[in-house]
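Weekly sync, protein design subgroup
Attendees: M.S., D.O., the rotation student, P.L. (late)

Item 1: inverse folding check
M.S. brought a backbone from last month's batch and wanted to see whether the design step gives back something sensible before we order anything. D.O. pointed out we never logged the input encoding, so this time it goes straight into the notes. Structure tokens as presented (363 positions):
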């Protein structure tokens, strides 16, 4: 059986790449191939500065020995296009190439490659050289595919969107969602560039107008305390609940209970898993045209697009859904069908299986 080594953050970490790796292990790929995991990166680890430095220095050596001892024919490197990942993960790429392993390098978001080192021709040339070392480069969004084609002439590129297990999320009929107040959810990293502060501004405006709204915030992140302080300052403590990181059936129940996924992000996303989960459960996304999101969402059909950093426009979108529950229900249906037809684990597994089998059959 062909052995595949996945490289990325801890499987239990709260990150999109960790979620992706777990989806690979939970798919048919784990039956068709022998999947192993090698942990790199800080998410999911509790360490001081000395421990972090020791890990950064020692991990490549451990990886080198690991590859020597195992028969992994293919190394699947999961990374992002940012400065931290560039300097760290290319070490693992070079080691895999030195040991003559086939390499699938998957980028899960970040800036476009031409923008990583703007104005620095030397580092941009180095980036282009390193990105031509993998046998296949995989991206998750059409925007990235077009940008990488411009940047990497001659490199084999594959578009493989993220995918989810929808079984629990579609377990209930959309007609079973409760009526009454509009229940909105934000699930993800609590950081300012995800647009969650603007969500509070929009809700405060609408509550002042007499709207009956509720927001549940799930996740954690660097701006969590600031966000909680803003809830207090705006007088929204009776309207906003913080539930912390949420997983498994509890997460699925939250998705199934809500009407709207508010996600006006201006972070360089890949293809957010929360978007796919919410749509499968019938939560209508109010979001922005960032990275892979427009690949999934058609404005007015599966969700609503707003401009980033604009709480007034965000409030208008919430009003539109709150006032038109027929539209709300119709979008929930079309969004669910969109995910079921195009973003299932089976589709993703088949695509990666074809990549692995092609590389595994090379001399």
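Designed sequence read out in the meeting:
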């Amino acid at each position: 059986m062909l052995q595949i080594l996945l490289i990325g953050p801890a499987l239990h970490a709260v990150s999109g790449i960790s979620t992706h790796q777990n989806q690979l292990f939970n798919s048919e790929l784990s039956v068709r191939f022998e999947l192993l995991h090698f942990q790199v990166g800080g998410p999911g680890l509790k360490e001081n500065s000395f421990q972090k430095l020791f890990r950064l220095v020692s991990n490549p050596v451990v990886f080198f020995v690991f590859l020597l001892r195992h028969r992994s024919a293919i190394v699947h490197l999961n990374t992002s296009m940012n400065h931290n990942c560039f300097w760290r993960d290319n070490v693992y790429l070079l080691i895999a190439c030195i040991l003559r392993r086939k390499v699938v390098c998957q980028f899960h978001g970040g800036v476009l490659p031409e923008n990583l080192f703007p104005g620095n021709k030397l580092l941009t040339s180095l980036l282009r050289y390193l990105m031509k070392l993998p046998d296949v480069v995989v991206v998750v969004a059409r925007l990235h595919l077009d940008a990488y084609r411009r940047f990497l002439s001659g490199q084999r590129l594959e578009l493989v969107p993220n995918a989810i297990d929808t079984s629990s999320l579609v377990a209930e009929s959309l007609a079973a969602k409760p009526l009454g107040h509009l229940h909105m959810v934000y699930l993800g990293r609590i950081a300012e560039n995800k647009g969650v502060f603007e969500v509070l501004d929009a809700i405060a405006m609408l509550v002042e107008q007499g709207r009956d709204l509720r927001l549940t915030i799930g996740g954690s992140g660097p701006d969590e305390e600031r966000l909680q302080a803003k809830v207090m300052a705006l007088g929204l403590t009776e309207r906003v609940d913080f539930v912390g990181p949420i997983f498994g059936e509890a997460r699925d129940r939250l998705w199934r209970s809500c009407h709207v996924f508010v996600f006006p992000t201006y972070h360089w996303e890949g293809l957010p898993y929360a978007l796919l989960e919410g749509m499968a459960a019938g939560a209508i996304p109010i979001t922005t045209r960032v990275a892979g999101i427009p690949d999934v969402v058609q404005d007015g059909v599966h969700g609503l697009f707003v401009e980033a950093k604009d709480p007034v426009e965000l409030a208008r979108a919430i009003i539109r859904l709150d006032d038109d529950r027929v539209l709300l229900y119709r979008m929930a249906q079309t969004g669910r069908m969109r995910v079921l037809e195009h973003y299932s684990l089976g589709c993703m597994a088949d695509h990666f299986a074809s990549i692995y089998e092609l590389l595994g059959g090379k001399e």
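Discussion: The mean pLDDT is 93. The longest strand covers residues 102-110.
Action: P.L. to compare against the previous round before Friday.
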